Structures are given as C-alpha cells and as structure tokens.
UniProtKB/TrEMBL annotation:
Listed PANTHER family: GENERAL SECRETION PATHWAY PROTEIN A-RELATED (PTHR35894), PHOSPHORIBULOKINASE _ URIDINE KINASE FAMILY (PTHR35894:SF1)
Ranges for region Disordered: 294-342
InterPro entries, A to Z: ExeA_AAA_ATPase_DNA-bind (IPR052026), P-loop_NTPase (IPR027417), SPOR-like_dom (IPR007730), SPOR-like_sf (IPR036680)
Composition-biased stretches (Low complexity): 314-342
Occurrences of domain SPOR (ranges): 366-443
Protein name per UniProt: DamX protein
Source organism of the structure: Methylomarinovum caldicuralii
GO MF term (any one): peptidoglycan binding
Organism superkingdom: Bacteria
Pfam families: SPOR (PF05036)
Length: 456
C-alpha cells in the first residue's frame, strides 16, 4: 500500500473540508485531548496559528463516540456573552431555558456522564467571558471546557482572563514537518487523480506553508488541474529554439555595433592625424636646425642674436610637463582594477538582507515587549529568506532573527511593530493576498526566543 493510500485510509471523508489529515504526532495530541477530558477537570486550551487544525480537532471531537459524553460546540465571537453561552448550552442539552442548567448538570454528574463545551475561536470572546465559563465548570464537575486559541489570543487572555489561562491546560498543535507535508501533498494529489508529485514542488509547498495544513491544502490545490509538474520538459524544445534565436540576434547586433563603432573610430583617428601637424607649433621643428647649424661657420652670424637661446629651455621644460600626466596615469589603473574586483564579490545572505533594509534581533530587542508583530514567514535557510524579501520588498519594516527548531537553525520573518492588537489586525488585512494569515505575536515572546539562544 502506498503512503498516499495509507493516509487516505486513516483519514475518512469529512462533510466540511473533504479531507482531514492527522499525522502520528497530531493523532497523539488528539488522544491526549480525549484523555484529559476524561480525567482532568480543568479547562483545555488548544493553541496554534491560523490553519493549524484547531477547528478540525473540535469536529473530530464531535464525531468521537465516547459513552456518556454529550458534546456541545459553540462558535466564539464578540457577540457571544456569558448569558449567550448558557442559553446555547441549555439548547444543546434539550432544556427549556438556561435556568435548568444547574439541575441538568447535577444529574449528569450523578450518572457519571460528561458535558463537553467546545468553543471555537475563543480568542474572539469579549474580555471576562472565558473566565466566567471556566468558573462555571468549576462549580459543575460534569462540565468540561475546551477552547481553541491562536497564540496571540493566548497572550491577550493572560491579561483579560488571567484566571482561566492560569488554571487551563494548554495543548499546542505543532506544524507538519517535511516528511508529513510530503505525505499530505501525496494524499491530496491522489484524491485529485494526480499520481506523482515533484519533490521540488513538495519542498516549495513546505517552505511557503511553514507546515500549516490549511496552507498546504491551498498550495496543493492551486497546482491540481494545471499542466504536469514537469511541464518544462514538453516546452524545452521551443524554449531552447527561442533562446537560440535571441542569442543570434544579440550577437548580430553586437557585431554590427562594433563594426560601425570601429569605422567611426578609424575616421576620427585619421582626422586627428591630419590636423595634428597643422596645430603643432613651429619652434619644435626649428630647434634641431639651430642645433645642427651651430657646428657650421655660420655660428658667428647667429651669436649676436640674444633671443635665440631662451626658447630652448622653455621648450625643454614644456616637453616633460606634457609627458608627466601620461606617466602618472599608468599606476592609477591598479586601484580601479582592485575596486572592480571588490565589487564583483557576491554578498552574503545576511548582507543582502541588510541592504534590503531588514532589521535584526538587536532591533527587535529594543522594541517594547507589550507591542505586537506579524510573523509572515519562516525559513531554515537565509538564502530563501533573502529571496522571499526581494519578492516582497514593499513591506516595511521587516525584521528577522535566528532560533533553534528541532536542533536546526530557523529564521522567522516579522512584519511591523504595532502598539495595540487592533492596529496589528488592521495591518493584517492590508497584507498581500498570500500573506493574510500571519501569526500575530507579542514581541515579548519573540524577545524571549532571542534571549534563549543568546544565553550560554
């Protein structure tokens, strides 16, 4: 059985997404969720970035067949008050009104049954609502609470609903690694009738999605139905022919320009040679005649003329002055060659990022820890990070830092510094379409990761 077939067998078709993928690590997280619900009377906080699969966990929880469990799933939002939670919970249990909740929960506790209250997008609840719901569960041991939160929401709730976060048990959903991403892409491709998937495409999807299942699905579906992944092989011949024609045309143009330029240069040189004797002063040619005549008997006739000797030293001085710039110009070519050689050296990825205006960890450590930022990407190679920044150079300010992830270097890329959560979410809506699902983080958590790597 192929890997894709095995994945498909372990992931039955779902009505909402059409396909839910659980790796072995994520299956262990789901089993842990079931175990804690059965044995731990504390709020369970399922945390992870947008698209990691938190809602999938709640859907699978609804489908889990556990004897004596009644699962009530609610959608969180700013319009959901504590009274609204009580009302919807009563409706789920078939009660006439919320006033009957105490009696119904007491009866289920006596019968050894559990009521699971699962709230999706708990970070959107108004301040204090999560606290009130968790305190209700304390008074009724038969009521268990599961809430999904994004990491940034978890940080915010530590201030607005501190008791619930302090008492809660966090279950963090990890992103898929490269092998699991490959399995997921293969499974999605198999469902679409595409038997093979190019390894280069898998790696590209992995780096663009950062292992987030929802993004992996979007990236994969974007390629389904397009030409085969090795389309360049079919187009190779016409492309090569076109390139050869372009090279031939460029060579012909270059040759024609050189010929026309050479003819013009020769014409200019001929004109210069023809003009040069006319512009040359006559004393230079006259001086040899005076010197030659000095050995003849006519010297007595020339001796009484005093103006004749002075021009000779002036011309002797003039000739070295004319030659000295040419002599000095020769060694000046060496610095030019050295400068050209220095400019030809390629920049390192870190230097490229600096030239693009990307800030480093030192800059991040100087920002207020209570502010927010948007993590829009992360890479395991600086070269790929630099290439990504080139594609999105309009985004400013950008910053990156280095951290350890599973024993390897990892480079998160952050966009902006925002004083409030509302400002960060407003900036999120203005990002390019492919980047509108960033990880909204507090700078305090980023600075903690930076200092953890710097500490011995």
């Amino acid at each position: 059985m192929s890997t894709a077939e095995a994945v498909l067998e372990t992931a039955p078709e779902r009505s909402r997404t059409g396909f839910d993928f659980l790796s072995s690590e994520r299956q262990q997280k789901f089993d842990l969720l079931l175990h804690l619900l059965a044995n731990l009377p504390r709020p369970l906080l399922v945390s992870g970035p947008e698209g990691i699969g938190k809602s999938t966990f709640l859907r699978l929880l609804q489908q889990a067949t556990q004897d004596g469990w009644r699962i009530c799933r609610l959608q969180g939002g700013e319009d959901l008050s504590f009274e609204g939670v009580q009302r919807q919970l009563a409706e789920c249990l078939g009660l006439a009104n919320a006033g009957e909740l105490d009696r119904a929960l007491a009866q289920r506790e006596a019968g050894g049954e559990l009521v699971i209250l699962a709230i999706d997008d708990g970070g959107d609840l108004l301040p204090g609502v999560l606290d009130a719901v968790c305190r209700l569960a304390v008074h009724h041991p038969a009521l268990r609470v599961v809430v999904t939160l994004r990491p940034d929401d978890l940080h915010v709730k530590t201030v607005t609903d501190a008791w619930a976060i302090e008492e809660g048990q966090v279950i963090e959903l990890p992103p898929l690694d490269l092998p699991r991403t490959r399995d997921y892409v293969l499974a999605l491709g198999a469902r679409a009738g595409q038997g093979t998937v190019d390894e280069a495409l898998v790696r590209e999807i992995y780096h663009r999605s950062h292992g987030i299942p929802a993004r992996i699905r979007e990236q994969t579906q974007a390629h389904i139905g397009k030409p085969p992944l090795r389309w360049h092989q079919a187009l190779a011949k016409p492309v090569y022919i076109a390139l050869a024609l372009l090279i031939a045309v460029a060579a012909a143009l270059t040759y024609w320009q050189q010929r026309s330029g050479g003819a013009k240069t020769q014409a200019d040189a001929s004109a210069a040679v023809a003009v040069e004797p006319v512009a040359k002063p006559p004393p230079v040619a006259a001086e040899p005649q005076l010197v030659a005549g000095a050995t003849e008997p006519q010297v007595s006739e020339l001796a009484p003329q005093p103006p004749a000797p002075p021009p000779s030293p002036e011309e002797a001085v003039t000739e070295p002055v004319a030659e000295s710039p040419a002599l000095d110009a020769a060694p000046a070519a060496e610095p030019v060659a050295e400068t050209a050689a220095a400019e030809a050296q390629p920049l390192t990825p870190a230097e490229i990022l600096v030239s693009l205006g990307v800030h480093t960890s030192d800059w991040l450590l100087q920002q207020p820890g209570q502010y927010f930022t948007l993590q829009i990407a992360a890479f395991d190679k600086l070269e790929e990070l630099a290439g990504f920044v080139r594609e999105h150079s309009a985004l400013q300010p950008l910053a990156y830092y280095r951290k350890q992830r599973r024993g390897r270097a990892w480079y998160p890329l952050l966009y902006g510094v925002f004083p409030t959560l509302e400002a960060a979410r407003q900036a999120q809506t203005k990002l390019p379409p492919g980047l509108r699902k960033p990880w909204l983080r507090r700078l305090r958590s980023v600075q903690k990761e930076i200092r953890a790597l710097q500490s011995p």
